Amino acid sequence: MKNEKFLKLKYWREYLNLSQEDMGVLLGYSNVNYCGKEKGRTRFSLDECFTIRNALNKMLKKEGIPAMTIDEIFEREHMK
Q1: Which superfamily does 4-78 belong to?
Q2: Integer Cα distance of 30 and 64 in angstroms
Q3: In angstroms, how far is the first alpha carbon of the chain from the final one?
Q4: Lower CB density within 10 Å: C or N end of the chain?
Q5: Domain parsing of the chain, residue ranges
Q6: How is residue 41 annotated by DSSP?
Q7: Continuous H helices in the chain
Q8: What's the rounded Cα separation, in Å, for the pair 65 and 24?
């Protein structure tokens, strides 16, 4: 997973006005640790993926946006 970033995850986080610190709190660690995961420096565990998916889908539902799968949220883009 090195040299990949999670641009869709970042997009939805920003769409919902969530900071990296907010996401870190959701997962129980610092914004620095979360930032490293979002940028692909360290891996998300499967449990973290489920936690993020559930939280984002709950917030997106309030916006009238259909639920997304883990694959949709965590689609990666290779950095050049």
Answers
A1: lambda repressor-like DNA-binding domains (1.10.260.40)
A2: 30
A3: 14
A4: C
A5: 4-78
A6: S
A7: 7-15, 20-27, 31-38, 46-62, 70-73
A8: 23
